Amino acid sequence: MVKNKLLLINPKNQQFYHGYRALPPIALAIVKALTPMHWQVDVVDENFQPLPDARYDMVGITTNTLNISKAYELAAMYRAKNSCVVLGGAHVTSMPDEAVQFADAVVVGDAENVWTELIADFESNRLQKKYYSGDNARFLMPDISFYGHNYTMYGIETSRGCHNHCAFCGIHMPRHKNYVRKPLDMIIEELQQSKNPFFTFVDNNFYGNDDAFLMQLFEEMLKQKINKKWQTGVSVNFFNNKELVKMAAKAGAAMFFVGFESDTGQSLKELNKNNFRQSNNIFGDYRSIIKTCHKNGIMVSGNFMLGIEGDTEQIIAERAAFFKNLGLDECACVILTPLPATRIFRKYHEENRLFYTNFPDDWKHYHYGKSLVKHENISPERLEQLAYEYNMQFRQRFSDMAAAFITTGSLKSTVFYYLYCRSFGKYSSGFFDRLASSMQK
Ligand code: SF4
Q1: Which residues are registered as beta bridge partners of 107?
Q2: What distance in angstroms lies between residue 166's CA and the mean position of ligand 1's atoms?
Q3: Judging by DSSP bridges, how do beta strands 130-132 and 105-108 pair with one another?
């Protein structure tokens, strides 16, 4: 029997992180697992693999706002070859009406709920233009056979959704209104399946206000001797439970990304970040989180934002000093960016304050390093210059690797930290490259 042929593509990010291969494209591993056996599935990560010449019956492309121009370009190319093109991913989910103009069909939300139906519709010539997944996430074991040794670390989800509602985040619109956790035995099985000694819990909010589940997960990771180093993003309330932090460390936590974002009650209110907004001592509260992590041998990464409503050059200088003095292991600053489907996008669009609105072409500017909104106190050029200068000050050096070793007491955690920094072009060293590849063999 002649098989139908499906090509899945992770498009190249044209502007940043050329050759990015820190994390695998999990969405494609899920779609591959969902595709029936009578299809032949090829996966290409355009960041480091060439596109094949062969003709495919269907081409599925995963997207985000950074790679959307390339995704639309590829869609046009494959449609010209008479392939049916299906687009999905974060950007398409936020902008389905835009995306559908470039594709034969779009998946809005999670593929798990609609991919089987989409394939059946294609096979019976009834393909619809839009497939909506609904709010409830469903989990399955991804097909990771195409990962090989191509990625720096493994990526695994334990949940979808988030209880918080930060003004700059698009997670709730139009998907993931509920917070849903993946079954624990599935998480453990997946971790056992990966040979990579490093991984990231890629959840939007790994904590999920669920101490009991995480305690159980960490205990199981220890019991099953997972023995890998990992990182993840957590909201600040994770650190209220010191026992949980201790158990995370025992289960291999090397670094936490913490959503600090800003330094004053007023600016946190603007971002709708509710933790510490009422605090009398935000610096002390943040510092205590970092001390708790360091005491347990875990590093902390925390970004801060520029261009928040009310910011002046003086306020930004104070914020940069605040973050510099916190004792973070990794820090960067980003310009407040109204990604599609976020509340701030709607607000600035309605107020006619966005500089770039010729979409989809102008999505290329929505990358956290560009000033996109007319600000009351600071010119766009000055804001971009400040972001550049502060990021230069926060760049990684060899001494940071030494500090990472002192903090964690672990060579494996230090190498993991190095790999993370290298992925984002922050630091690179032949010595650590050799060390890392010997650990990954
Ligand atoms: S905590 Fe993270 S995932 Fe949750 S709303 Fe805020 S930015 Fe989004």
Answers
A1: 131
A2: 6
A3: parallel
The CA 240 to ligand 1 mean position distance, Å, reads: 18
Fold designation for 154-440: pyruvate-formate lyase- activating enzyme (3.80.30)
Ligand 1 mean position to 304 CA, how many Å?
Answer: 14
| Terminal Cα distance for the chain, rounded | 39
Q: Is the pLDDT of residue 213 over 90?
A: yes
Q: Given 3.10.450.50, 3.90.25.10, 3.40.50.280, 3.40.228.10, which CATH number is that of 4-132?
A: 3.40.50.280
Element (H, E) at 318: helix 313-325
From atom 1 of ligand 1, which residue's Cα is the shortest distance away?
Answer: 164
Q: Is any atom of ligand 1 closer than 6 Å to the C-beta of 65?
A: no
Backbone angles phi, psi at 195, to 5 degrees: -90, -15
The confidence score (pLDDT) of residue 429 equals 84
Ligand 1: does its nearest atom lie under 6 Å from the Cβ of 165?
yes
Of 102, 108, 115, the residue nearest 130 (C-alpha): 108
- Ordered by start, the domain boundaries in the chain are 4-132, 154-440
Which stretches of 202-343 are assigned E, i.e. beta strand? 229-234, 253-258, 299-306, 330-335
- The per-residue pLDDT of the chain, averaged, comes to 93
